[in-house]
Each structure stands twice: as structure tokens, then as C-alpha cells.
């Protein structure tokens, strides 16, 4: 299984009054992880947008395990959990420097035409990208 990794230095602005990372920042880190995965497998999400396509989040599930704090470095591990004609599920682990889990998550996405928001298969937009996602997907559909 192909897993992309991205390190993120936790900034003070990402913490709350309790001194821990505010929960919504994990969602931002997941987006950073997806972008890194796309780049690592040789593609460019901005290129899809230039062609008039976007990939909105349809569903999100996150489980918080252990708080992270300012000054730590988080590692975001991202992979393609599953990929089908119209849906892609990404999996995530966000790790502490010692490798312990801070959070696990999945996000469900589809590709749509930007002007109409109608779903569109990745295979018709970029068959090479679609083939790569099918190749690296953890679970086969």
C-alpha cells in the first residue's frame, strides 16, 4: 500500500485555550496530506481545477486519540483507502513524533464539474491518474 507522509510543525495559532491543537486544524492537515499524496504519485490537483473540476468532501470521519501541542511536529500519513468510478476515500493517520496516534480519519470525495457541480469520473478527465489510484488503493472495489 502506498502511503504519503508530510510533516507539519505545530504553530501556536493552531492551539486553543487549553494549549492543545484545536480540533478543526486536523482537517486542514488532512487536506495538506491529500495534496502531498497527489504530488507524490505524480499529479497536480491545481491542474484539475484549471480544467474546471473540483473534488468536494462528501463525508468525513475523525477519531481523536491523543492531544497534540504547540512546538511538536505532526506527521500526516495519507493513502487511498478505496477508489471507484465516482468516489475516492482517503485514509489518514496523524502521528506524534514518537509514532503514537494523535488521530485517525477518512474522507470521502467525488470529482465534479466546477460550473454545474455534476459528478464526473476521474477516468474521463485523467485516465492515468484514475489508473494510479486504482493501483494504490488499499481496498479494491
Automatic annotation (TrEMBL):
One GO MF term on file is: hydrolase activity
Tell me the InterPro entries matching this sequence: 4-hydroxybenzoyl-CoA_TE, HotDog_dom_sf, YbgC/YbaW
Domain of life assignment: Bacteria
Membrane spanning stretches: none
The enzyme's E.C. designation: 3.1.2.-
User: What CDD domains would the database entry show?
Assistant: 4HBT (cd00586)
Task: Recite the UniProt keywords alphabetically.
Answer: Hydrolase
The record ties this protein, via PANTHER family, to: 4-HYDROXYBENZOYL-COA THIOESTERASE FAMILY MEMBER (PTHR31793), NOVEL THIOESTERASE SUPERFAMILY DOMAIN AND SAPOSIN A-TYPE DOMAIN CONTAINING PROTEIN (0610012H03RIK) (PTHR31793:SF27)
NCBIfam families recorded = YbgC/FadM family acyl-CoA thioesterase
Family label: Belongs to the 4-hydroxybenzoyl-CoA thioesterase family.
What is this protein's record name?
Thioesterase family protein
Source organism: Ureibacillus aquaedulcis
From which lineage does this chain's organism come? Bacteria, Bacillati, Bacillota, Bacilli, Bacillales
